[in-house]
Structure formats: C-alpha cells, structure tokens
Write a structure and sequence with these properties.
The chain is an alpha/beta fold. The protein contains 26 helices and 41 strands. The strands form twelve sheets. It has a seven-stranded mixed sheet, sandwiched between helices. A five-stranded parallel sheet has the order 4-3-5-7-33, covered by helices on one side. Strands 36-35-37-38-41 form a five-stranded parallel sheet, sandwiched between helices. Strand 23 and strand 24 form a beta hairpin. Helix 3 packs antiparallel against helix 4. The termini are far apart.
Length: 940
Amino acid sequence: MAGLPLSFAEPLLLLGLLSLPVLWWLLRVMPPRPRRIEFPPTRLLFDIAPKEETPSRTPWWLTALRLMAAALVILAAAGPVWNPQTGLAGKTTPLLILLDDGWSSASSWDTRLRTADELIANADSDRRGVAIVPLSETTRDVTVMPAGAARVALRQLAPKPYAVERIETVPAIERFLKATGDCEIVWLSDGVDTGRGPEFIEALGKTIGDRALTVFEGGTSSPLALVAAENAAARMTVKVLRTDSGIAAGIVRAIDAKGSPIGEAHYTFAPQAQEAEAAFDLPVELRNDIARLEIAGERSAGAVQLLDKRWRRRAIGIATGSTSDTAQPLLAPTFYLARALGPFADVRLGDRGVAPQQAITQFLDQKLPMIVLADVGTLSPEIRERLAAWIEQGGVLVRFAGPRLAQADDDLVPVKLRRGGRSLGGSLTWEKPQHLATFAADGPFAGLAVPKDVTVNRQVLAEPDAVLATKSWASLEDGTPLVTGEHRGKGMVSLFHVSADMRWSDLPMSGTFVEMLRRIVDMSGYTSNPGASVATNANTETVAPLHILDGFGAFGPPPATARPLPADFRDRATPDHPPGFYGPADGPLAVNALAAADRIAPLDTSPLNARRASYTNAEPRDLRGILLSASLALFLIDAIIVALLGGGLAALVRRRAAAAALVLALALTATMAVPSRLRAEGTESSDEFALKAVSQTRLAYVVTGNADVDSIVKAGMSGLTLFLAQRTALEAGDPVGVDPAHDELAFFPLIYWPIVPGVAKPPQDAINRIDAYMKQGGTVLFDTRDAIEAGPSENGASQTPGMQALRDILSALDVPELEPVPREHVLTKTFYLLRDFPGRFTSGQTWVETLPREDDDEAAAQRPARGGDGVSPIIITSNDLAGAWAVRPDGQPMLPLTPGEPKQREFAFRAGVNIVMYTLTGNYKADLVHAPALIERLGQ
C-alpha cells in the first residue's frame, strides 16, 4: 500500500470510507434544529437563567471525533495486516523458487528462509506444488513436491562457502519449465554479482518467457567481504568490500591459529566507495601469528580471510658459488645468510653438490619471491633471461659480492661495477678499515641505527655516474656504496658490495645485517597465480582438506565432496575445493572464498520483466484489534463528552456521592498497603542476597552510583573472575555489587572500591561497617584510578581529585600505617612473581599495611586494624586495575592501556590474581616450615 508494508484481507470494505461525508451531514443535522415561533410573552422568560442548556447543533469537533471512530471501524473490518506475508495468493499453477545460496547470502540467510517459508505457506493454502532450485546445485533435477515436503527440503539447505555460478543452473530450469508449462517463479536474490551476473539475467529472461516472475531484493544489509590481505613492511592491510553506498564503519579482527584474538583494525567507507581498508599496526612477530581475519558481526565465509605461511614468511632461495660450503660449512656464506633470514623467512638452499645455475633453475621453477646469490659470477644467457623476466614480474634478487662477482661481467646488478675490488693493501687501498655511514633517508634502511663496531676490509666498487647516489642504500664513511639497489618492472635488484661471509667485513655477524635483510624481505611478496608449467605438472604435490569453512564462516570437518588440491593452489574456492585449510596442521595451505583480485558489485535485475518485492525482517501483525480498541475508546470519549454537555454526569455524581466516597476510601486503603508489601519484598531480597553470597566464593565491588564507572568495574571484576578460573583452581561466582550502608560485607574476602571524585562521602554508618569489616579480616582495595593525572610527590601524596576524595573517606576510618609494597612482601609472590602492580596505568604506587619489624611486636599488637593471618586490611592504588581487567561479552578489552606495553594487560591480570590469592590464603607463602624438607628431597 503506497510503499508501506500494509495490506488488507478485504480491501473492498474500504469503500465504506466513502460514506463518511454522508455521516458528517447526518451528525450535523441531528438533533434537528428547533422551529422558531414568535410568542409575545417570551420577553418575560429572557430574565430567567436556565439550569441546563442543549445546543441546537452538534459541535464540529464532536462530529469529527465520531467520524474518526467510524473510520477506524471500517478499516478494522477490512482486515489490515502490517508486514503481510509475501507471495501471490489465489494462483493454481506450481510455484518455482530460485534461491541464491552462495557465501553472499549467508548474512541474511534467516530472512531469506523466512520469506521462502511464507511463499510455501501461501502455496499450501492454495494446494499448489512447490519446486526449490538452490542456484549452487547445477546438476540437481528440479521436481515439484507438496508444500510440506518443500518446507522440509528448505530447512535442509545452508549457504555455500563459495561464490555460485548462477548461469550453470539455467539448463535445469529450462528443462523444468518445458516439462511443467505455466508456473509462478520467485527468485530470492542476494543482490550481489560475483561474476557473470548479466549473462544469467539475459539467459533467465529468455528461459522464462512471459511467465510471472517476482524478484526479491533489498530490505537487508549489504554483505561484506575481505580480500587482498597483505603483510607489508610496517603493517598488515586487508580490503573490505560491499555493494551498497553510504557512510559505514566497522571492525576487522585478527585471530591466531588457536582462536585467540591478536588485534583489531577499524575501517570506514566513504559515501560512494565500495572498498575500504583496515590496517593492523602490529609488530611483525604478532602479524606472523595471524591465521584468520574476520569482520566483526558479519556471518559469512566471504567475511573471513584465512592466512597461511605465504602471508607470514617469504620463501627465499640461497645459491652460492663458493666451494667452502662443503669443506667448512660454518664459515660458508649460506650459514650466515640462513641464520640471518631464518627468524622471518623460509630459507631454501640449493642441493649440495649442485651447480649455482641448477639451483637458480630450481628456485625459478618453484616460483620463489626472492633469491639470494652469494658470490655467483658468470651466468648463462638462458639463466640471465629467466632471472630478468622473473624480476620484471615481481621477483626480488639480492646479490653479494665476492671474488667471482668481482671478475664477472653481469648486468643483473643495480650499478655498473669496476673489475676487481678495493682492499687493505691493494692498489685502491685504505689506511684502515672503513666504518658505515648514515643510511640513506629515502632508502629501505632509513631509521636503522648505524653500528659502530662494523668494519669493511674489502669491497667491489661501482663506476661513478649521475644516478649512483640515488641507487645507494648504504655507504661507507668515505662515500663509496656498500649496498645499492633499483627497481625493475614489478621487482627489484639489490647488491651488497661485500661478501656474505666474514672474509671482506664483519657485517654478517652484526644485528644490523639481520635488520637490513628483514627490510628487503618485507619488500618481496609471493606469486598469487602459478604458471602454466606448474599447473600442468603431473608430479605436483597435493594436499588434503584439514579444516573447512561453512557458509557462515565457521570451521568444521571437511565434507565428503571436498577434494585434495595442488600445494601451489592460488585461486578462489570452488565446490570441489571449499575455503579452509588444507595440508598438514603445522603448515596448512589457506583457500579463501574470494581471490585477491576479486571484487563484488550490485546485481542489476532491471532487464527482467518482473515484479519487485523486498525482504521484511518483522513478523506479520494483524491490526484489527488495535483499530477496534481505538474506535471503542473514541466512542467512550464521545459518551463522556455528551454526558458533560447534557449535565447528566453531574446529576449522576450527586446521586452516587456515597458510592463514590466508598470507592475513594478503598483506593486510599490499597495505596497505603503498598509500602508494607514493598518492605516485605525488600526483606526477601536481603535473604536472597545472603544466599547468593555464601553459595560461592565471590568478589565484591562498591556501587558508586556513577553508571559508567559501575559498568566498567563490574566488567573488570567479571574479567578477573574469568582469568582466575582459567589460570588457578579458584572457580569464583559472578562478582557482586554492594552498598556498604545496607549490605552485609562479611561474605566477601575482597571488596574493590573505585573512588569517584565529586560523589558524596558515604554516611558514617557505612564507614563504621567498613571499619568493622577490615578489623574482622576483610580487605578493601581502594583505587583512585588517576595515576595518569599526577605522579606522587616526595612524601607519596598526590593532589588529584580522586586522592582528595579518598582522604575524606579514610579520615573517618581507623587505618593502619601504610607503605609502598616492598620487594619482599608476600603479595609479590602469592601466585606470580611480580615487581609491581600495573593496571590501565603503570606509574602509580600500590600501598599496603606496613610490615612489622621483628623487634616491633608490641607496636604490631597496637595496630588499629590488623588483618587476619597477616593480610593487610587495606590496599591503595591509582593504576585503575578494574579498567585493565574489563572485557566485553565477546572477550575483547573495553578500555585502552597507557602506555600500552605489550604485556601490560597480562601483568594487570596477574596482579589481580596475586591480590585475590593474598586475601584468600594469607601469608602461607612466607611460611618456610617445609623449606628444609623440600631442599633435602631435591638433593640440594
């Protein structure tokens, strides 16, 4: 109805609305206007004030009220339904449902199934047969089945984890239509063109001819996809795809092979953009651990990007012309190169006894992204041509100098070289070994620290020319180049002007050598499409499916239809090779729903002569009850208004004054009874609180009244409880928020009290209860959460608002003498060995009761609040521990850390574990009774 999701079961009854003008006229003339007759004595009646007056006409607003009530009755009689069921009723021909079931349909799969179920229900009411065609099953025979069987078949369907080829189902649809004749066709489209969409639209239009076609599209959110993940030098990036427009944003999560989160990256779509980029600024060690990228809140295989070792480590081949590899392997260039490249690359050495040119041929056949040649001199023309073509296509060639290269004439170097070399005592001699100069600011080594202990004794020299400076990445102090490089096509050639072993310099022994090679490796990639020679090689290794993604992006066992694939497979997923991990568990091959170059686009169905409909996410709702109730309410209002205008209500009140007084008295009695009921409920609630507190060991926190602070603290205490269950034998219950003024505190071993500046000081009764709790063995952890605002002064005090509020509270408590946690305190070793107690911040100190000296027993006995078993009754910090513990329901941290060190949150949780164990177990860790027996058993 005019674009609204509204329909009527009996639309002809809406013609009754045409009678409203007639009803208006009747209501305006009723009651009839009185006839006017001249009567002379009427003048005597003018001065008499009537007690009641009756208008001669019905007021217009009362007439409008009655018309509105009548209109509501007519609309209710027409049977209005909001969000009516889809489909065309009253047909007799079979119903053919075409269902998109690729990965792009997974995000709205439930909506699609609900729509199909409504279509089947309509067909069932008309006693029509139903045929379902999943567009991914190209070889399936299409048959008409009863509606009940169709509903069962529909529930057995699930989205596929790959893109479907709709065009391949056209022959099956054509055979069905020829055998069936006329039928109603409904296409439940996902609105995404993953390839060959226009071909399918054209073929479908020719196949169905003049048959009725309804296309469902729109009404659901656009599916999102991930493609082209790239582990670059400084960060990992991935592209996020969509088909619609408008400003949108989201989060991409990075997960390791064990399912643990590594990081999150935000992306934002421009208004008209269909691509966005998410970037993970993480250390390379963490990026190498990423095995899965996924879009938060998106359930589809296309929203998952699986990563294998191609994204984590580059495969690098090393060939050397030296003969010392076999005679003295620990002095060979391959030894230093393999050790330097090993932490971040797959190193492949040429077979022992194989000539360098044969090793290079093997590396080129393996499609390696990077090859290192150590002192390899003259190359055959065929090898030079293959290497040049490989570099043009994106390969990275790194060469190291040596006696052979110094005498060779080779163009696979970035600069022209002089014959021979320069060395100590030679014709181009140095008086002393040369040190390295600062690295070029525009080169790949920019920012590396220059090692002062690296010296060069010999090098190959470059012929000076105008572009030598632009190709120099590293130089010696005398200005001669140490490392040169240039880009050729999509690839790069680089030359170290010294050898890869210790003969010419001690650079291979330095950490700078490792970092220089890491920078070059980060500029290399991998070949995404294998060559024809590899694809057609009958001896290509195959790998079996290990873990396969379903259409919703969840891992599961491989289906029976999944087949092994070549180990160099680089294409998108197919029905025979669904997305997932293939091969051994320690080095699997990742296959994704989309290839790196794939893009998605909206599917244009405008060439089809079809009726359009949209998906609805709400259930149908009958509006008759609402309209009838509204009309009844209007009629009641009309009756009350008529009674007021006619004076009848006043007379009724006078006659029923006694009854009205009785009703009022009963209402007041019921109102007075409410407080006692509430008080009873409050008593019951206190009993439930006590039972809940003693049923399990629970941590507690003080409810401050600040909603934001309380929600973070609750999440933090829940996060600490979960961490305790994962790392210790303590399985505590959910944390409990307490009000010190009303709740019993003795049930809890530890109470966390976040200090909120500006909140009113607790009443003295609450202070007394806290004081009693501390003296009976309980521990209160006060957290001002303001370490970042101001550091402590010389006497340990701080002037922040949080500390001022804490002083106001402690001024009314009997607090013992405090000191920063000493290094030997039992709190530092109750479970983990800790030196400090970080939270969201690390600059704050943690204070506990001062430990009594061995000769200060009398002073210890006079302490105002001694904790049971040596436990400090009070702990004070300003590092916001609960903020560091707080996690969302999905397991992700709620708040960032400052300064955000790699393991700061882990140490914050460890600090919480130590505090809890300290309050539960006391100082048993300091008890050395069993130490002699343990030492004797260990044989020490």
